[in-house]
């Protein structure tokens, strides 16, 4: 079940969670999540299995990674599942999270119109391709929303020495929106855009857009999962939240993540330790 509301008004049962997670009944947790895991259909695949096994209902708030972390810092959630490792580690270092676990990965790709006005098709160096886009003046659509994707894009621009902000409103268009909306905007204006591969695979309005840049190790996209610290947030359902994390990183959960495909393509690759 997906919600975009505050914890206020969300019923969280206060039943004791025994040693056998399967005995837990009428419990629920809120997961503050990045949008790609929701938009890709991964939760629709995973959550029924988890709930059937444990009796725990998982309510997902799907927003950009930056907003998800802010929500978790405001104690509006039990578990944080996002893809911006430095920000996740800072969340734990600040005492807001108990422990961070690697969960799964995929990669980012740069897509754009088939006519490829900047001539970046087939490139495997993300920074070089961004420099070429900037030099050509071809349109580039950015989420501009402090999401995990935007954070990665910003770091790539920083490595090029190009300040895309100087082209804001001209060749560099910031949408301030989620990945799906930004992809739609990019298709509408024939602009290049960076997206996580899972969202790209599940995106239906591709038009004549194709993947132009992929395969750079700098486009690696790691996801992590963290229990919000109950010592900082007294409303955290710590036992049920930890049960969810334990299931995700278990052999069962990891196999379920790896088994999820769309159009014959695997979207996420499990890599919990």
Q: Looking at the structure, what is the overall shape? A: globular
Rg, rounded, reads 19 Å
Q: Structural class per helix/strand content?
A: alpha/beta
Round the mean pLDDT to the nearest integer and report it.
91
SSE order, one letter for each helix or strand: EHHEHEHEHEHEHEHEEHHEEE
End-to-end distance: 28 Å
Percentage of residues assigned to helices: 25-40%
The description of the largest β-sheet is: 10 strands, mixed
- Number of helical segments with 4 or more residues: 10
Strand content: 15-25%
The CATH class of the largest domain is Alpha Beta
Low confidence ranges:
1-26
- Please report the total strand number as a whole number: 12
CATH H-level superfamily of the largest domain: Periplasmic binding protein-like II
**How is the CATH topology of the largest domain named?**
D-Maltodextrin-Binding Protein, domain 2
How would you describe what is shown here?
With 273 residues, the chain is α/β, with parallel strands linked by helices. It has two domains: 21-105 and 222-270, D-Maltodextrin-Binding Protein, domain 2 (3-Layer(aba) Sandwich), CATH 3.40.190.10; 107-219, Periplasmic binding protein-like II (D-Maltodextrin-Binding Protein, domain 2). The protein contains ten helices and twelve strands. It has helices spanning 35-39, 42-54, 65-73, 85-93, 126-136, 148-160, 179-189, 197-202, 238-249, 251-259; strands at 27-33, 56-62, 79-82, 97-113, 140-142, 172-174, 192-196, 209-213, 220-228, 261-262, 265-266, 269-270. The strands form two sheets. Strands 1, 2, 3, 4, 5, 6, 7, 8, 9 and 12 form a ten-stranded mixed β-sheet that branches. Strand 5, helix 6 (148-160) and strand 6 form a beta-alpha-beta unit. Helix 9 (238-249) packs across helix 10 (251-259). It is globular, with a radius of gyration of 19 Å. The two termini are 28 Å apart.
């Amino acid at each position: 079940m997906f919600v975009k509301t505050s914890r206020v008004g969300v019923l969280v049962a206060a039943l004791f969670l025994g040693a056998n997670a399967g005995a837990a009944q009428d419990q629920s947790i809120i997961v503050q999540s990045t949008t790609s895991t929701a938009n890709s259909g991964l939760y629709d695949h995973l959550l029924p299995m988890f709930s059937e096994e444990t009796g725990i209902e998982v309510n997902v708030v799907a927003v950009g990674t930056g907003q998800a972390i802010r929500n978790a810092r405001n104690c509006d959630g039990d578990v944080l599942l996002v893809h911006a490792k430095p920000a996740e580690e800072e969340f734990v270092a600040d005492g807001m999270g108990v422990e961070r676990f690697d969960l799964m990965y995929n990669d980012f790709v740069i897509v754009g119109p088939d006519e490829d006005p900047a001539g970046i098709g087939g490139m495997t160096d993300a920074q070089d391709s961004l420099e070429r886009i900037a030099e050509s003046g071809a349109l580039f659509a950015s989420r501009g929303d402090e999401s995990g994707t935007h954070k990665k894009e910003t770091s790539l621009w920083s490595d090029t020495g190009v300040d895309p902000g100087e082209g804001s409103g001209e060749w560099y268009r910031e949408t301030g929106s989620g990945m799906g909306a930004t992809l739609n905007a990019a298709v509408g204006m024939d602009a290049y855009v960076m997206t996580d591969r899972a969202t790209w695979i599940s995106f239906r309005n591709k038009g004549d857009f194709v993947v132009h840049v992929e395969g750079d190790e700098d486009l690696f996209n790691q996801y992590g999962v963290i229990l919000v610290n109950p010592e900082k947030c007294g409303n955290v359902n710590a036992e049920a939240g930890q049960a969810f994390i334990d299931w995700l990183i278990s052999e069962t959960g990891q196999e379920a993540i790896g088994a999820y495909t769309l159009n014959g393509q695997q979207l996420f690759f499990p890599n919990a330790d």
